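We give the chain.
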Amino acid sequence: MGKTAHGTADRAATAAAIAAERCELADFFETLTPAQWQAPSLCAGWRVREVVAHMSMGFRYPTAKVLRELVKARGSLHRMTDRLARRDAAAHPDAGLAAFLRTHAHHPWTPPIGGLASALAHDVVHGLDVIVALGLDRDVPGDRLRMLLDGVDPRAFRVFGTDLTGVRLCADDLDWTFGTGTPLYGRGQDLLLAAYGRRLPAGRLRGDEVHRFVTA
């Protein structure tokens, strides 16, 4: 298989993984109670509702409207996404927010940086933002998790506020490490959250530097 064929196959596999992840998360979100929809997530300042609303923002806002919203936010991507997430969370019922993911499972949206792999990370990480914060459990399928762990890119750390200085992430459920320094142990999907700048509930990570990666 030539280089172009390999690239096409990889894109097709990633697109299929994205569609599956969105459908599975839609099914999961539809099982949540009204109280769980109102509960805090791992995203600071956002409840579960805002996270799920944000996950479908790229499907529902054409580029021209996003740019207009960015101007309103004086060029701040953070302010724009926060305002839209809060507005959309208030405007749509629980079932509607979940259904957006299923309806747009095959939508070709990608974040501004990173292409399809970043779109998959967007879905997986935000799904975990909800699941972990609620104290629930869902195993991210191994092929999707491996794709994201192998694609961890230090160039994106500034965007997510990630600081892995002096720390080596060591998965204890699969063969994967990242970085150098004092080992930080945990499940691969929990370490993925750490790589995306999340602070996790106590007990999910282990190591001498664990205090840097858990909630107070």
